[in-house]
Amino acid sequence: MRGTCRQCPQVFLALFSVAFLVACEGSGNTYAPPPPPKVMVAQPLQQPVTQYFELTGNTAAINSVDIEARVQGFIESIDYQDGTAVTKGTQLFGIQRNTYQAQLDQAKATLASSQASQVGAKQEYDRQVNLLRQNVTTQTAVDSAKATLDQANATIANAQASVELAEINLGYTQVVAPFDGTMTNHLVDVGALVGVSGPTQLATIVQMDPLYAYFSVSETQVLAIKASLAKQHSTLSQLDLPKIPAEIGLQNEDGYPHKGHLDYVSPQIDSSTGTLQVRALFDNKNRAMLPGMFVRVRVPVGHDDKALLVRDDALGTNQQGNYLLVLGKDDVVEQRQVKTGQKEGALRVIISGLDADEWVVTHGIQQAIPGSKVAPEKSDMNSVTADASGTTATTASQ
């Protein structure tokens, strides 16, 4: 009996296992794959878009001049505050005047003496001419008086030039602003001797309104512009540049809020970089921009009446470039390489690789695996764009 009791637990376990297997077989359960993931798809938005070249550049002052002392002397006054705006003709520095005032006075005295000598020479010449008419003097005496008069006239001309030169040098002792601008810090102090061995730089004045923006266009872009102009049977001249708008944006700004126009195009391509330098002109009345700033630049180069746009965040990137996840046959996801253009708000222009009637995955991108089936929920690009940014994106076409 004791041996039989020891075998009871094993027998009970075996019977329980058999019963469990029979119950499982009787239930008829089979493996069911999970349903396809839900994704939102939308067809690309088709609308007119102005085509731009998007470039980078730097701002530059329209005028920037070093203020220099052109005469020798001690600095007597600094008549501006560092960093302040000044107007044309404002005195900036005062240089010792007494020496140049004395030179001017001396030149004027010399001129007065020469003028007195000229009066005497003229009177003597006129007297000799009258005497010659009366046959009282000789032609030699007349010629001598004429030479004396000519010498007096030459002396006066020389004295007048000395006066003008002395006035100019005296004027150089008052260093004034050559145009409206903003002054840098002064480089010399009151009492410093300047102009000893040549012009001495005192400060720099910078004109900040308007402001230039320099940027470079690649050779490929230049050829594209020329081809576009050729199709229109048109050419581009310097007189046409102010008619071409340009826009720039700073690093901390969205879009391109600063409006201007082209001002200059280099006549030749830089062979070392393969680029063409272009300059645009912008108003800067509120001094929002400073010379030397990095800026984003865009210039209109064409117009597409039926551009295709998709959400910018629907794009992915791989080694081949940008791609979109597109709904294929039987709702199977395809990865499509595309060529992208400029950004228009929350949208991105698709140049090639996508048709207008195709459905692009806009939400649930992580669940949309290329080659796998999905459960698409169709929408339109305007609504999904509004969901992303709060308002429907609009293009910058003008």
DSSP summary, beta strand count: 19
Q: Give, in order, the helices and strands.
A: HEEEEEHHEEEEHEEEEEEEEEEH
Give the CA-based shape: elongated
CATH architecture annotation of the largest domain: Beta Barrel
Widest β-sheet, arrangement of strands: 2-9-12-11-10-13
Average pLDDT over all residues = 86
CATH topology of the largest domain: Elongation Factor Tu (Ef-tu), domain 3
Indicate the radius of gyration in whole angstroms: 44 Å
The fraction of residues in strands falls at 35-45%
> Helical residue percent?
25-40%
The separation of the N and C termini measures: 103 Å
CATH class of the largest domain: Mainly Beta
Low-confidence stretches: 18-22, 386-398
Total number of helical segments?
5
Largest sheet: 6 strands, antiparallel, barrel
Helix and strand content put the structural class at: alpha+beta
Q: Give the CATH H-level superfamily of the largest domain.
A: Efflux pump adaptor protein, beta barrel domain
How many distinct folded domains? 4
